[in-house]
Design a protein that fits this description.
By secondary structure, this protein is an alpha+beta fold. It has 5 helices and 5 strands; from the N terminus they run αβαββαββαα.
Length: 167
């Protein structure tokens, strides 16, 4: 609808509804995953997935969100070749969505980038941003459920404090 709508204000409202719906879906999925983790029923699937397709999905998902935030989103695959990997592409995508989403949320200007490369048989991902950063003393608590750096973060930026816990 947003792409077909000619009125800019209506397009903006439609994008807001879509973004809000995606946020609610992510929260429900995070709560379900947290329950699975705590009950010992969380599973990691091992199947083929296409890394290039996953990265393109992330590029499409976050390019609009970054543009709406007034920043740039970059994806750099250092070895520009298609990868067919074995692993849990959905979980890897979920982790990257949490990390990139946080980076965009806490970046007011500049850019957020995702770098991907392989070395010595390992696949590496690096999310970088020009945002507010994280104090070293709050790093450990960010990976606990329902935790954020401080109460002002939740008031200013939103979020339930589950994304990094699940990641």
């Amino acid at each position: 609808m947003a792409e077909q709508e000619v009125d800019e204000e209506k397009r903006r409202l439609i994008r807001t509804v879509v973004t809000s719906g995606q946020g609610l879906l992510a929260l429900v999925n995070d709560i379900l995953d947290m329950s699975k983790i705590e009950s010992g029923k969380f599973t990691i699937d091992e199947s083929h997935y296409d890394l290039s397709a996953l990265l393109e999905d992330l590029r499409q998902l976050f390019s609009i969100r970054a543009q709406d935030a007034g920043i740039e989103f970059l994806v750099e695959l250092r070895e520009a070749q298609p990868y067919q990997l074995i692993g849990d592409g959905q979980r890897i995508g979920q982790i990257l969505i949490n990390l990139i989403g946080n980076a965009i949320k806490f970046t007011e200007s500049g850019e957020v980038s995702l770098g991907v490369w392989s070395a010595d048989g390992y696949l590496f991902f690096k999310v970088e941003d020009t945002g507010i950063g994280i104090l070293p003393e709050t790093m450990d608590q960010l990976f606990q459920r329902f935790e954020q750096a401080d109460g002002s973060i939740s008031r200013s930026f939103g979020g339930a404090g589950l994304g990094l816990y699940i990641s």
